Amino acid sequence: MKITTKLWIGMAVLIVLSPLGLILPDRFKAGSAWGEWGADEMQKLVGYVPNGLAKLSTLWNAPMPDYAFKGWEEKGLPHLSFAYIISAVLGIAIISVAAWFIGKVLTKKGD
Amino acid sequence: MHIPDGYLGPATCGLFYAVMLPLWAVASKIVKKTLKAKQVPMLAIGAAFSFVIMMFNVPIIGGSTGHAVGGVLVAILLGPWAACIAITVALVIQALLFGDGGITAIGANCFNMAFVLPFVGYYLYRVLSYNAPLDSNRRVFAAGVAGYIGINVAALFAGVEFGLQPLLHHTAFGQALYCPYGLNVAVPAMAGEHLLIFGWVEAIVTALVIKFLQKQDVNLLID
């Protein structure tokens, strides 16, 4: 078997295991990464929401915020784990195609 | 380490876009010269691996979370400039599609994770693995140390970027406009959690994959 095939199989295993990145923090009561709090968390932490942060934090409306479907914020872990796996598949597909395309363009000889 | 929108002021965001633009241009130029056509699938795999490994949030019990980046590994296999491109692709999609890391902070996030991290890791690996046989354990060790130090230097940069904000931008009453934590809080927080936990995750991931590749196809480790 080619090494790239083996690595893609490894990637598939990582996709299936990816919800661990959601479940473990939940189990161990760990919150956001440092410096990645939402406006409401910031209010609790420092007692106010910095003005610029309040304005800029809503600048971009990502289609799948936090690796979940929009409106799924209140859903339980099984739902969120499913969305996480879908996010992993989608992300890997888009990123590998984009990187592959860039690689192809850059390694094209004769120009 | 994905700085969201609103944590860095316009000056910092602009500065890092201005720094990254020429670096991306140089990366394209160098990768064009050095990357072989048969390495293109590895570039795609490297970018995808970096993306998916960042989804594995590791908890600090009762505290925050963090994750490996996988960038030092990509740098060891494809060189630091190719790693810069691969990680940039992952970071841009994370920001656009998943809102992980801000649009305004793409320059800063790419500087930390797609430039500092792979370059520090790569050159440290080269020094530590100097003259070591491709299948030697010294290479595995060198990869682990490079992963640990690479992510920690990147986290230190992120901490400084966060921590400078209250100095740069505040209201007349002393309220911060962007990240409210100064260097005295941001640097120990970012450096500390990566020194204690997340650096080890990056070290283990990097070393394990290098060990696996040594057994599979040792030629992948030719510098």
What would your notes on this structure say?
The complex is a heterodimer of chains A (111) and B (223). Chain A has 111 residues and is mainly α. Chain A has a domain at 3-30 and 63-107. In chain A, 61% of the residues lie in helices and 0% in strands. Chain A has helices at 3-17, 20-27, 39-46, 51-56, 77-107. Chain A is extended. The model of chain A has no long low-confidence stretch (mean pLDDT 93). The mean pLDDT of chain B is 96. Chain B has 223 residues and is mainly alpha-helical. Chain B has helices at residues 10-34, 40-53, 71-78, 80-98, 106-128, 137-168, 183-216; strands at 58-59, 65-66. The longest helix of chain B has 34 residues, at 183-216. Chain B contains 7 helices and 2 strands, in the order H-H-E-E-H-H-H-H-H. At the A-B interface, helix 1, helix 2, helix 3, helix 4 and helix 5 of A face helix 1, helix 2, strand 1, strand 2 and helix 4 of B.
How can the largest sheet of chain B be summarized? 2 strands, antiparallel
Q: Which term fits the overall shape of chain B? A: globular
Number of strands of chain A: 0
The assigned CATH architecture of chain B is Orthogonal Bundle
Summed up, the helix count of chain A is: 5
The portion of residues assigned to helices of chain B is 55-70%
Calculate the terminal CA-CA distance of chain A, rounded to whole Å.
34 Å
Largest β sheet strand count, sense and barrel closure of chain A: none
Report the uncertain regions of chain B. Answer: none
- Which stretches of chain A of 5+ consecutive residues score pLDDT under 50? none
- Rg of chain A is 19 Å
The overall pLDDT average of chain B reads 96
Q: What is the string of SSEs of chain B from the N terminus onward?
A: HHEEHHHHH
Q: Return the domain count of chain B.
A: 1
What's the CATH first level of chain B? Mainly Alpha
Question: Regarding quaternary structure, how should these chains be classified?
Answer: heterodimer
Number of DSSP-assigned strands of chain B: 2
Portion in strands of chain A = under 5%
Q: Give the overall pLDDT of chain A as a whole number.
A: 93
Strand content of chain B: under 5%
What name is given to the CATH topology of chain B? Arp2/3 complex 21 kDa subunit ARPC3
